[in-house]
Design brief:
The chain is built from 1 helix and 4 strands; from the N terminus they run αββββ. It has 118 residues and is of the alpha+beta class. The chain has one domain. A 4-stranded antiparallel sheet has the order 1-2-3-4, with no helix packed on it. The chain is globular, with a radius of gyration of 18 Å. The N and C termini lie far apart (39 Å). The chain binds zinc ion.
């Protein structure tokens, strides 16, 4: 679907964000999220709090494994992404204070789930 064009005379409202955090995508060979997280911090000399999550992989649970079952087919839903709060409270996603969130999806059934732990 094409986006409408704003022309002269159209109402234009500028939305300013208070703070913005950008992210870079890095591939790592380690399939263990926690190990990859710490290895990245050691390799770069940066805080592990700067790791904003992972795409795919296996969830790193802060508490018990809560992998959801698909409400349609009842299979365990694969993880799509894990999200961390980030190092800066002005841009942090709030998952309860040092929490972590996971997005799961069962693509054949078009079902998804989002949950977080802290
Ligand atoms: Zn399903």
């Amino acid at each position: 679907m094409p986006l409408p064009e704003l022309g002269a005379g159209d109402d234009e409202e500028v939305i300013l964000l208070g703070a913005v955090r950008t992210a870079a995508f890095e591939s790592v060979a380690n399939s263990d999220y926690d190990q990859a997280h710490e290895a990245w911090a050691a390799r770069t000399g940066r805080s592990s709090m700067e790791v904003l999550g992972q795409l795919g992989g296996s969830p790193s649970w802060l508490q018990n494994d809560e992998t959801p079952s698909c409400p349609s087919c009842a299979r365990a839903m694969p993880i799509i992404a894990q999200l961390e709060e980030g190092p800066d409270h002005t841009t942090a996603m709030n998952f309860g204070g040092c929490g972590s969130a996971c997005v799961f999806a069962c693509e054949p059934c078009e079902q998804a789930a989002f949950l977080w732990q802290c």
